[in-house]
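Fold Annotation — chain and its backbone

Fields — amino acid sequence, structure tokens

___
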Amino acid sequence: MSVSWRAARAGLRSRAATKERAVTREARALERVKTERGRAHVTKLLASRAARTHRKAWAAVFAALALTSLLLGSFVLALASTGLGHARVERYAAADLVVTGDQETRFTAKPWGSDPQTARAGLTERVRVPAGALGVVRKVPGVRAAVADDVFQVGRAGRAVTGRAWDAARLAPYELRDGRAPRGAGEVVVGGGAGIGERVTLRVAGADAAYTVVGAADGPDAAVYFEAAEARRLAGHPDTLDVIGVIAESGVGTGELSSRVRHALDAAEIHSVGRRADGDSAEVQVETGDGRGGPEFLAAAPARKGMLELLASVAATVVLIALLVVSSTVVQALRQRAHEIGLLRAVGATPRQLRGAVGREVGRVAARAALLGAVAAIPAYAGLRGLLGARGALPPGLELPFPPWLWPAPLVTAGITVLIARAAAWIAGARAAKLRPAEALRESAPGTPRRVAGLVLLGLGTSSAGTAVLQSGQAAAMAAGAAAVTMVIGCALLGPWIATGAMRILGAPLRRFGGPGGRLAAANCTAAATRLGAALTPIILVTAFTAVQLSGGATLTHAGQGQAREAMRADFAVRADGGLPSGAVERIRDVPGVRAATDVVRGTVVLARRETGEPRLDRLPALGVTPEGLPHTLDPKLRNGTLSALRPGTVAVGGDRARSLDARPGSTVTLRFGDGVEKKLRVVAVYERSLALGDFLLSRDELLAHTSMPGPGQVLVTAAPDADRMALAEALAAAVPGARVAPDPAPIQVEPEDQELVEVVTVAAVSAIGAYTVIAVLSTLSLITIGRRPELRLLRLAGAGRRQLRRMLRLEAGATALTGLAVGAVVASVPLLAFSVAMARTVPYLPPVQALVIVAVVAVTTAAGTLPPARAALRGRYPGAGPAEG
């Protein structure tokens, strides 16, 4: 040993005496203030002195609270902006009000032991109004003009554009910048890209026709305007209208005119077109103000609602994690002062005074941190908006206002952050304040109630994960998420026992292969199980949280991609962005060398169901196909039934959905299409590859009948075994003029309409919360190491060398990281296994790169929180004396 035990004892006595004198002075001041100014001043004095003395400890709490305020503030701004969101008003900007169909479907059910509740879902296909509504609206007093508008898809030069009647252009208003308005069936006005007098070929509803360009208009380039009668003919629904735009007479208020129009439509018993479900009233809607943009951008309202639900879920997760992280950080900041608090209790400080002092300390730190986070929340939200825009995650036309009066909203979350901090301080200070003075001077082992509570939470988490296996869809995801959070909290309570068990496993290798530093590390970790347990909690949290969030989506995507590759059997895809001509699939089947051809269209359906008694409406993607030769082009892997019977009035159902609906060939399933029309469909087949092809396969004609603006047409083609593929590609192009023939088409995988939005928000949330929990790991470990400085100095006085202590700290950090990663992986695997079995019938999948990133981040953060804070105790030949030894 480089220093004698006598010198060590002398140094310890000197330091103990110094600390005792400081505490004695503080106690005397306490007694003086008690007699002079009362208990409130005692609390204030203790808080102010402790805040100055423990600045480094409170710095970690400050960082955690500032990040809490930033995350909550940014998500509140996103929620508020989305709540104010609306569809952009373009096409009907000059109309005072718009009459349109009811773009919402409803499902009412009575939950167990509760009053009836109604679920609502937006419809993304056009809901039309009867043509007779136009005459009713025109007769309303105060209406200067009522203009019918039908919007349909037009193919022009291989791309999709929008077709309308020229009369409806005044609702924008779009005006001619050259030429004249169309006067006959063969004339059009274009938005740009063609000269006056030019002949253009346009494809509408699969039929090609030539038109003469007679004018050029303002507004979007991807628009073609027809003469009114021709537009009605091309729209294909002469008895219905898409929208009626209303222009008021001078001096008539919008609100007054809206009431008149509403009353006239009700008196005439005008309802939206289509047979709706019982209880789903389909009144014609009269929109004013920002509501006029909804009939143009049909996907905006459903996307806004989904975004609100997603952001609310993320914000709730942030609050829960913030409570756990802030509580852990505050507890650790106070734990290193346990002896000081005990001495204050011994000299007369009451529990109420200590709780008040701790509350004041945390309150001061929390107020500054919360304000800083609130200010930073504005640029953080701006970054989220920029990310959504850059990735194209928002649907066209959705406006998210951010008015200046909304900027102070993070101040509300700053107040919530302060409340979280005060609650954490109350919880952390309650135990130390209630202990008797003699007990407060020594660290006691965690009690049996804590162990029982932790085991109960682990049991509840496992039970919730088991529930996820029996559920599907959103219910399975929610059960798995609840299981992960519950088990993490249980591990936080069981931290000391987890640490003890880990050291029984890791202690022997540390002692045998770690040398003196390893023996010191094993002894320290075994003796300070409570401290090691506190260090494990944030590591388990960051590992389990990121693994569950990343692996859940990755598992479904990976399984879906595998099914999509297995399902795709086609050799060619024939496409046309402006729509394929009528009879294209029949012409393709007649081409020599074609074994099978399938026309595939995309659409949506809405499924009304109950989940734990609550009414739910799920908007699901669906495929419409022609059944002839389907297994040779797009094989859904038939379980039972026959796909050849797929025609209007029938449906094929995915295996998991069939199980939840108790559907089988011959039974019926009730679906609502994208335009709200409800229909009972007979099940003709059940198939396996629903993650790739969706839960429902419908007849192409059935789905197109309820699709207002079909997407790009696509015919999948499989070549005969002996066909010359190059010659076949040329023959296919000749058979369908204007179409593109692509060899080896990409696998088809249906995705929800808001898939990109969900992915971007989820990745942003996981990144933000992951970074937050990493900061929590760093803060907690730094606090623990700072509190160990006297211990490290004592070890140095007792003769331990700096290299030995550095090795000890490295091995302790490695053992902590390894234990936290292992326990976090186990905690994550339980709900993930339940989720993946319920949703994908497979084991959880996490991309190797993401797994390596999690391990690397935990390892680096653990080392950064353990080694740098210990430098002060390892400097010099003696603790705190002179330069470092060579």
